[in-house]
């Protein structure tokens, strides 16, 4: 009888914690912007309840997180890393087998551009092009100077401020009567866009996706008619000392889930989740808009996503893992 009980206990203690033992502790960077924080919380819940990991969130930001992963091997996962700003360092980390570009967390990539409201394009279809915008410049009255037209640039101090100003120059928008307006902050920029949409007024300016504001309002990205010239964009348009910028649409910004090579190689099943897990900008725009409308934090938005969009996330995991996550919800 003692032998039978001992065997039963051994079976019990070896059957259930196997997955947790294999996965162990996983550190996930919880970045300081909404989309990345939401995804980090989703990853934590799925890894903890679906794969038996001890998943922990730690504060993160693009440069310090990327640097720490390369130099110290921590955290294990950066769910949403915009790689352009530290591409050379990350590429070196991959080459040296320290890091792995595991998956495209933003399937469409990060999107930037100059935008106008969709209701304006319905009325004036040529506003979908930069020539149409310049032709109808007087529609975009500058509230600070009624004699000029307003183009809302990127907030001062942001990297996109340089590219927006250089493209403003390259597109000869000043010659068309536009003044470059500094919105002062992210809130100032989104506030000007929201105010115009709520009042069905004209608006023209820089914006990016995924963002809550583009989930709430229908906007059209203006076509410069130039295509994308990535080398010119990187070598000049993004540089403060670019004297003669030429016109180029914004190239798509690659946004990856990056893991340490050690984590990826030791946890192939969990790593497959990160390979498959990804969002379109439209999906994230809607989620971020829901967060803003409901004043929800990332944890609340995570529960909303997992309970409201099971068909989306169940594609990322095996059926048995999906059942465990559903049970935990």
UniProtKB/TrEMBL annotation:
Protein name listed in UniProt: ABC-type glycine betaine transport system substrate-binding domain-containing protein
Pfam families linked: OpuAC
Signal sequence coordinates: 1-20
Sequence ranges assigned to domain ABC-type glycine betaine transport system substrate-binding in this UniProt record: 25-307
Keywords: Signal
InterPro entries: ABC_Gly_betaine_transp_sub-bd (IPR007210)
Gene3D superfamilies, per the entry: Glycine betaine-binding periplasmic protein, domain 2 (3.40.190.100), Periplasmic binding protein-like II (3.40.190.10)
Keyword match DNA damage: no
């Amino acid at each position: 009888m003692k032998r039978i009980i001992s065997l039963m206990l051994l079976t019990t203690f070896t059957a259930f914690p196997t997955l947790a033992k294999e996965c162990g502790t996983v550190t996930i960077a919880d970045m300081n912007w909404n989309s990345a924080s939401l995804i980090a919380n989703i990853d934590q819940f799925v890894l903890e309840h679906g794969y038996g990991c001890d998943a922990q969130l730690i504060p993160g930001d693009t440069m310090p997180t990327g640097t720490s992963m390369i130099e110290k091997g921590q955290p294990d996962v950066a769910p949403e890393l915009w790689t352009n700003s530290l591409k050379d360092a990350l590429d070196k980390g991959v080459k040296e087998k320290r890091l792995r570009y595991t998956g495209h967390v933003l399937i469409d990539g990060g999107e930037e551009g100059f935008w106008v409201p969709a209701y304006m394009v319905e009325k004036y279809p040529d506003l979908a092009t930069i020539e149409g915008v310049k032709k109808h410049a007087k529609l975009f009255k500058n509230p600070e100077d009624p004699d000029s037209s307003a183009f809302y640039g990127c907030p001062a101090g942001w990297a996109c401020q340089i590219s927006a100003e250089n493209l403003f120059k390259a597109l000869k928008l000043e010659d068309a009567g536009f003044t470059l307006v500094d919105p002062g902050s992210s809130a100032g920029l989104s506030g000007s866009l929201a105010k115009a949409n709520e009042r069905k007024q004209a608006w023209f300016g820089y914006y990016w996706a995924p963002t809550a504001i583009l989930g709430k309002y229908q906007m059209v990205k203006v076509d410069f008619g130039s295509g994308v010239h990535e080398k010119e964009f990187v070598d000049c348009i993004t540089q403060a000392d670019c004297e003669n910028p030429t016109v180029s649409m914004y190239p798509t910004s690659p946004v990856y889930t990056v893991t340490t090579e050690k984590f990826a190689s030791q946890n192939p099943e969990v790593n497959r989740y990160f390979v498959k897990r990804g969002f379109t900008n439209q999906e994230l725009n809607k989620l971020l808009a829901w967060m803003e409308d409901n004043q929800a934090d990332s944890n609340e938005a995570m529960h909303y996503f997992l309970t409201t969009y099971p068909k989306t996330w169940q594609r990322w995991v095996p059926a048995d893992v999906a059942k465990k996550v559903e049970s935990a919800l």
